[in-house]
Design goal:
Layout (H helix, E strand, L loop, with lengths): L3 H7 L14 H28 L16 H6 L2 H34 L5 H11 L8 H11 L4 H11 L1 H13 L3 H9 L4 H12 L1 H16 L3 H6 L8 H7 L8 H27 L10
Length: 288
Amino acid sequence: MQTSTELSYNLPMDLKINEPRTLTGGRVISNLTAALLAIFFALPMVWMVLASVDSEATNQLNLPHLTAAHYWVAVQSENLSALGNSLIISTVATVVGTMAAFLAAYVLSKQHIPFKNPLLLTVLFLSGVPISILIVPIYKMFAALGWLSIIPTGILLGVTALPFQIYQLKNFIDAIPVELEEAAVLEQASSFQILWKVIFPLAKPGLASAAIFGFVNAWGNFLMPVVLINRLADQPAPVRLFGFMGSNSINYGVIAAYSIIYSLPVIVLFFGMSRQFKAGFSLGGAVK
């Protein structure tokens, strides 16, 4: 009869996974660094939650004196209207930016066009250029055309995200085998059918990622709306949030409560589209 020691020698090497891992100095330092970074990024969120229900909220992290009054102020009609304005601006920016980026990425990935490499380098360069450096000429142009309102601002914010979205989507479309397009051509599919019935379904993970980036880029933008929207009633949530900071005092509780409400659409969007990140990577999803 074999002993347990003899049996252990008969096990494959890759099954011996229960041996304790030794803690080296480098591993301890990396774990401590990760823990400190997690605490550093979590503290503002903890403060925001506690301050939103604290009747005596300050900029310090304290145990709250519970109240719901800050949320009541945060959901007043003018504050909800600002959230609605943000939703309009961000939706327009997301739809315009994502669809334009998808079409441009398809052309740069699958079509043979002149000066493709210079165009790609231009897109890569523009993705790192902040739009704020052009705010003065953009304002003058919008004012001359009478475009100082919600929809043009949303379209502009969609355009500002285009370079990064194009580069992001091109990488997804590059991974789609050309054999699928060739098979569709043999079945006499038009270019439009290839784009929307072959490329589009397989690019959904990239589209979801690009859409989330475009939405967050527009949702959190403060500078463009405050400069390019001339009606106070049309200002979005970031501008309204800034209004809670008065010249003599700052209402930390209302700011925290409104910030939590303001964060919810982005959280819902991320989890609502998270399935797209897991789907579409298999070529079995291609539409014939």
